[in-house]
C-alpha cells in the first residue's frame, strides 16, 4: 500500500509537546535519540502525526 504524502499530517515540535504533555526540549531529545522520526525544514523539525500517535500508544515499560 503506497501512502501519498498529501495523506501525511506533519506537526511542529510545539504541537507534539502539547499532545504528549511534555516540554519542547523532551520532543527534541526524542527526535535526536531516534525515538521519533522527523523531517528537518531549515532549522525546524516536523514530525508525522502517525508517529506521535504510535509513540503515545506504545507502553514504555511494564509497571509492577
Mean pLDDT, to the nearest integer, reads 89
Q: What ranges have pLDDT less than 50 throughout 5 or more consecutive residues? A: none
| Proportion of residues in helical segments | 40-55%
Strand content: 15-25%
End-to-end gap: 39 Å
Could you say which structural class the secondary elements and strand pairing correspond to?
alpha+beta
Strand segment tally:
3
Order of helices and strands: EHHEEH
Shape: globular
> What is the spatial order of strands in the main beta sheet?
1-3-2
Description:
With 64 residues, this protein is an alpha+beta fold. Helices cover 41% and strands 17% of the residues. It has a domain at 14-57. The chain has three helices and three strands; from the N terminus they run βααββα. It has a three-stranded antiparallel sheet. The chain is globular, with a radius of gyration of 13 Å. The chain starts with 9 loop residues before the first strand and ends in a 7-residue tail after the last helix. The model has no long low-confidence stretch (mean pLDDT 89).
Topology (elements, then pairings):
Elements: E1 10-12, H1 13-20, H2 24-32, E2 39-41, E3 44-48, H3 49-57
Quick overview of this protein structure:
The chain is α+β, with helices and mostly antiparallel strands.
Name the features:
3 strands, 3 helices, about 60 residues, about 40% helix, alpha+beta, three-stranded antiparallel β-sheet
